[in-house]
Amino acid sequence: PADGKMNKVKWLLTWPLIFVLFTTIPNCSKPRWEKWFMLTFILSTLWIALFSYFMVWMVTVIGYTLGIPDVIMGITFLAAGTSVPDCMASLIVARQGLGDMAVSNTVGSNVFDILVGLGVPWGLQTMAIDYGSTVKINSKGLVYSVALLLGSV
Question: Do 31 and 95 belong to one domain?
C-alpha cells in the first residue's frame, strides 16, 4: 500500500522531466526513428550537459548558502554523485559473474576521468588558448580529499 503511494508520488514528480525528454529526443529504438540515432545521441549529450551544469550550479549555491567550502561540496556531492552510477554498474556485472569487467570499469573510469577530464582542458589551456602558460591548481582541500579517499577505501 505505502509502496504504491510512493511510486505514484515519484511518477508525479518525474513526469514533467520525462515528458520534456520524450518530446525533444527521438526514440531511435522504434523503426520510424532508426536513422535518427545520431540526433538522439547529440540531443542526449546536450541534455546531460545541461543537467550537469544545473547540478554544479545548485551544489555551489547550496554550499555558499550553508557556508560549506566548494572543495568539500565538490568532493562529497559531485564526485559521489558521478561515482555511484559507476559503482552500481560494477556491482551488477560482478553479480552476473563478470568480475574482470567490474574491476576494469572501476579502474578505467577513474583513469579516464584523470587523463581526459583533467588532461584535455589543461592541454587546451597551455597549448591552444595561452601557449606556454601554466595551470594553477588550488590544493587547499587536499587534506580533506585524502581523508575522504582513505575513509571511502
Answer: no
Residue 79 CA to residue 70 CA, distance in Å, equals: 12
Q: Using the predicted structure, report yes or no on whether residue 6 has a pLDDT greater than 80.
A: yes
**Amino acid code (one letter) for 141:** G
Distances (CA, A) of 98 to 37, 88, 107: 29, 14, 15
Domain residue limits at 24: 1-67
pLDDT band, residue 25 (cuts 50/70/90) = very high
Same domain, 53 and 63: yes
pLDDT of 14? 93
Model pTM score: 0.60
Ramachandran quadrant class, 97 (left: phi over 0; alpha: psi -120 to 50; beta: rest): left
Last residue of a domain, one of 67, 88, 105: 67
Q: Which of 16, 21, 28 has the alpha carbon at shortest distance from 44?
A: 21
Q: What share of the chain in percent tops pLDDT 70?
A: 92
